[in-house]
């Protein structure tokens, strides 16, 4: 059967089977059970029987001939016949011995084949059992994956249905239905983190829709209820909604954003993990929206865009964190704005912003570049204890009331070119670590630059008219009025 000669190749084929099982494709990588290779059809027995018979006969004949030819001459015929008979018997015994040897060899060969066949059969049975177990495990994993896929598919279909229905509710003419749509979206986002950014985008898009606020300022106070007569007689907004009802819907949308963007640890300063209601890493785009009494106190937001926004009522952004870029270009703050303790992680742009009320930036940190170009501060502006880590520009800005930069630190270049200070401005205990530029700035009120330090006095500065830098012993510069008597505790160099 030539089975022993095929055994090494069979073992190599069987050892290669686990590599096939390691394929990640569960549908196409299943290895076939190991089967014995096809055996060659045995030849006819004549091919070895005939030579064996000829060998035995030849051996007997040769032995007989050799013995007979070597017999000596005997005296009698009887003795000669006995000798010849003995020689023939000896030759036949040799032939029988050769035949017995051949028979023994055949028996040994048969035993060896049987042992190899038993070994191969046991090995194949073991490997087939292992492969069967592996295939069963793989089929079980495949069934689990299919079940998980079906579950996820069903969940996605359910989420899509709820999302579509909630978005449709936002376009309903009844305020109660729109409120229901907002709360449905909030619940979806809370239960499905992967869809939170999309739902935040939908809420922001709703706030960007055209809206005409109610004209009665008393009714804009969120604490007071709107009289039914006023609601009934109010004119519709561009979207066809009652303005007083629409205002309540928009306040709800703002409240949903603020509640889920607020990072509780910022306010409580606790070591406990943030509330599970916090949605991390959200971007907001409220470009051109009308926001009433916005309260983003303690919120943590990535990118935020407030370009052209009208902020009505009190706006609170204290202790908020903006991890990405922030833009307020062209925005209008119609009342006081509070940025106290806000962290701007990257670039912040306030170009063309109008602050109709007080603007407080106390203890704010700007880690990126910040631009206040052509900003109108109609009331007092506070930049006390502010840290500008990169370049800052107030070029062309107008401070129509008081302005305070006390204890501010400018780590990058600071530009106040063509800025207008209509009333008093305070730069007490301010530090300029790099260039400061006040070229063409206009000061119409009281100006205080007490204890202002320039750490690089040799840089190309442009200070306000009438102020110079006096070098100190430590190599820094101290700003004071020209021709003023130098302080007794320091000497100029």
UniProtKB/TrEMBL annotation:
SUPFAM superfamilies: Pentapeptide repeat-like. Keywords: Membrane, Transmembrane, Transmembrane helix. The chain crosses the membrane at residues 45-68, 88-108. The keyword Membrane applies. InterPro entries: 5peptide_repeat (IPR001646). It comes from the Bacteria. The keyword Thylakoid does not apply. This is Pentapeptide repeat-containing protein. It comes from Streptosporangium algeriense. The lineage of its organism: Bacteria, Bacillati, Actinomycetota, Actinomycetes, Streptosporangiales.
């Amino acid at each position: 059967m030539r089975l022993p000669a095929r055994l090494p190749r069979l073992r190599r084929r069987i050892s290669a089977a686990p590599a096939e099982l390691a394929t990640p494709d569960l549908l196409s990588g299943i290895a076939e059970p190991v089967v014995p290779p096809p055996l060659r059809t045995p030849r006819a027995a004549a091919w070895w029987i005939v030579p064996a018979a000829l060998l035995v006969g030849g051996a007997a004949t040769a032995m007989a001939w050799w013995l007979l030819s070597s017999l000596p001459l005997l005296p009698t015929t009887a003795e000669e016949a006995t000798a010849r008979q003995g020689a023939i018997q000896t030759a036949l015994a040799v032939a029988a011995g050769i035949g017995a040897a051949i028979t023994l060899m055949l028996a040994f060969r048969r035993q060896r084949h049987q042992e190899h066949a038993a070994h191969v059969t046991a090995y194949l049975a073991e490997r087939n059992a292992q492969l069967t177990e592996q295939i069963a495990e793989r089929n079980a994993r495949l069934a689990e994956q299919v079940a998980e896929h079906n579950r996820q598919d069903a969940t996605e279909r359910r989420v899509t249905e709820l999302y579509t229905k909630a978005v449709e509710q936002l376009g309903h003419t009844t305020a109660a239905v729109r409120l229901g749509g907002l709360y449905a979206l909030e619940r979806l986002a809370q239960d499905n983190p992967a869809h939170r950014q999309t739902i935040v985008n939908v809420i922001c898009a709703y706030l960007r829709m055209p809206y005409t606020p109610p004209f009665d300022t008393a009714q804009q106070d969120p604490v007071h209820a709107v009289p039914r007569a006023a609601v009934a007689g109010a004119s519709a907004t561009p979207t066809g909604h009652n303005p007083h009802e629409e205002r309540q819907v928009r306040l709800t949308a703002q409240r949903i954003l603020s509640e889920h963007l607020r990072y509780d640890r910022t306010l409580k300063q606790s070591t406990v993990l943030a509330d599970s209601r916090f949605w991390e890493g959200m971007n907001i785009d409220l470009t051109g929206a009308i926001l009433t009494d916005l309260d983003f106190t303690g919120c943590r937001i990535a990118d935020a865009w407030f370009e052209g926004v009208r902020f009505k009522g009190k706006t609170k952004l204290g202790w908020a964190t903006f991890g990405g870029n922030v833009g307020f270009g062209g925005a209008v703050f119609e009342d006081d704005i509070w940025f106290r303790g806000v962290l701007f992680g990257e670039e912040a742009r306030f170009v063309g912003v109008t602050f109709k009320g007080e603007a407080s930036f106390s203890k704010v940190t700007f880690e990126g570049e910040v631009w206040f170009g052509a900003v109108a501060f109609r009331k007092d502006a506070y930049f006390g204890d502010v840290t500008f880590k990169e370049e800052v520009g107030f070029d062309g800005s107008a401070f129509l009331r008081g302005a305070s930069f006390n204890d501010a630190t400018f780590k990058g270049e600071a530009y106040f070119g063509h800025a207008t200070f209509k009333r008093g401005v305070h730069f007490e205990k301010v530090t300029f670590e790099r260039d400061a530029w006040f070229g063409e700035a206009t000061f119409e009120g009281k100006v205080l630059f007490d204890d202002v330090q320039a750490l690089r006095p040799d840089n190309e500065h442009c200070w306000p008219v009438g102020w110079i830098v006096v070098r100190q012993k430590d190599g820094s510069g101290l700003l004071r009025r020209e021709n003023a008597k130098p302080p007794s505790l320091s000497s100029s160099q």
